[in-house]
Amino acid sequence: MWEDPIIKEIHQARQAHSNQFNHDLQAIYQDLKAQERKSKRKFVSYLPKLLKDVSLLHKT
Question: Quick one: pLDDT at residue 30?
Answer without folding.
Answer: 98
